[in-house]
Amino acid sequence: MRVMAQLAMVMNLDKCIGCHTCSVTCKQAWTNRGGVEYAWFNNVETRPGQGYPRQYEDQGRWKGGWTLTKRGKLTLRSGSRLRRLLNIFANPDLPTVSDYYEPWTYDYQNLLSAPPADTTPTAKPVSSITGEDTAVTWGANWDDDLGGGPAQIGRDPLLGKVSEQVKLEFEQTFMFYLPRICEHCLNPSCAASCPSGAIYKRTEDGIVLVDQDRCRGWRQCVTGCPYKKIYFNHKTGKAEKCTFCYPRVEVGIPTVCSETCVGRLRYIGVLLYDADRVGEAASVRDEKDLYPAQLGVFLNPHDPRVIAEAERAGISPEWLEAARNSPVYQLIVDYQLALPLHPEYRTMPMVWYVPPLSPVVDVLAQTGHDGENAGNLFGAIDALRIPVEYLAELFTAGDVGPVRAALQRLAAMRAHMRKVNLGEDVDDSIAASVRLRPGEIESMYRLLAIAKYEDRYVIPDGAGSDAHRLDALATGCSLDGDGGPGMTAFDAMAEKFHLTDTNGAAAPPDKANRINLLDWDGTSTKGLFPTNGNDVTHESEAV
To answer: Could you give the CA distance from residue 121 to residue 45 in angstroms, rounded to a whole number?
Structure first.
């Protein structure tokens, strides 16, 4: 047993309203600069839909993730090392800008400088890459709210597998929102694809990062990532990806997307896992066994033997305490509500999802039945307008059993808590029907519905005992300046993160009073808004 710790995230899709706040704040913090105008480290997709980039889940086309050889050996779907080297200068398996979308802005200057005329001046769309006039034909959330209407049938790679079970009438089609970030996998295929070894997984917290100094821009990682969450910066010639906001989590602050989430649907916590079992779990023959195989990799942080091995491996008591209190462990292992996104890619993803249940109550109520009665809810799960089979294609490689079990537990929680809230006698059989005790189902409710900030984000302060090492970052950063991750106020960030001493350089005078999303605590509003008419700036300068 080789115990390692990983920061992981769970998103409760039952609470996502598709507001894109997470996407916008991530964009402001990390990719609000030249070269990555098209890149969204966090995006929110409407399901069913094509996704971003278009049809990224079609691995027959993009060749991302891992596959098994006839001998059962795990190998990259993009081919052998020789094949990848032959394609290193002309990779045929890369999405083009049109598959993402060509980013655009508007010619606002024309509104200000147009001479007097009989017609109202307009602001034409202009490409953010070339500066030329462009036609807007596609966007990162172009399918927003379209759901599984007739126009989407055949375009969603997953919908094609279950299309006969989907009602084609648009007004009867159920949709849901799927926020996506980098999965920070236990078995990352992007790292295995990189010829220069620039992509690495941090041993202390499992975050997958790109070493900008070693990256040579071969873009094999873009092909290798099945989630297409690595982007090529056409200005710097480097690959970039979601960083799990490591400057924030190192000091115990949640990621920007989590901090600003309107629906409070994200949870961050520590998972302990056996690194020696990752390869074996990713190599199981039957794809439907990949979800339980990954569950088997996670270790019980309350087990004295696991604790002893973790201490021997150098994991600090603070991290072990965070693992014991982890909301992620509870949702994934204890309650088995959260499921991995596309385990069939064999990357062992570490961003998991609680499947959506919301519409079933309204559907039942419209039929004249009690929408929150346990018996009615259980019977309606298989009749959801979004088929359980579709959710299974997303989260369990087509195995409907775990999806149905998770939805039944969510339904049981609703039925049980209604009796509690109405002061009725609690029916213990509701919890027993989903293999839980009444106390457990109420704890599950507190975590999913009314959990406080400190219960949703249990992040150990990894920087506190290592400040001397982080101090060195103040002297420079390979992403600082032009081509940096939106850190135009890097000095201020460094000072607040204790990356400089008392004599360190302060933020530039014109930006000293503005907020930096990388270290925002989620409560202070100072710097969020201009204080006077002279403090108004462009969005690109606000971070």
So the answer is: 34
Give Cα 364 to chain centroid, integer Å: 32
Tokens 């297409």 locate to 228
Same domain, 450 and 475: no
In 3D space, the residue among 432, 448, 243 whose CA is nearest the CA of residue 338 turns out to be 448
Q: What is the pTM of this model?
A: 0.84
Condensed to tens digits (0 to 9), the pLDDT of residues 314-352 reads 999 999 999 999 999 999 999 999 999 999 999 999 999
- The 10 Å CB-count burial string (b at 16+, else e) for 521-531 is eeeeeebeeee
Q: How many CB atoms lie within 10 A of CB 126?
A: 18
Q: Cα-flanking dihedrals φ and ψ of residue 6, to 5°?
A: -140, 130
Give the tens place of pLDDT for each residue, 408-439: 899 889 888 888 888 888 888 888 988 988 88
424, two tokens: 């009725």
Tell me the C-alpha distance between 280 and 187, whole Å.
11
According to the model, what pLDDT value does residue 162 have?
66
Is 535 a member of any domain? yes
Low-confidence ranges of the chain (pLDDT < 50): 165, 167-171, 463-465, 467-468, 470-476, 480, 483, 485-511, 534-543
β-strand pairing of 351-354 with 3-12? parallel
Residue 467: which residues within 8 A CB-CB, separation 6 or more? 498
For residue 481, what are the domain limits? 464-541
The answer to the question of residue 128 being in a domain is no
| β-bridge pairing 199-201 and 208-210 | antiparallel
Q: Which amino acid belongs to residue 453?
A: Y
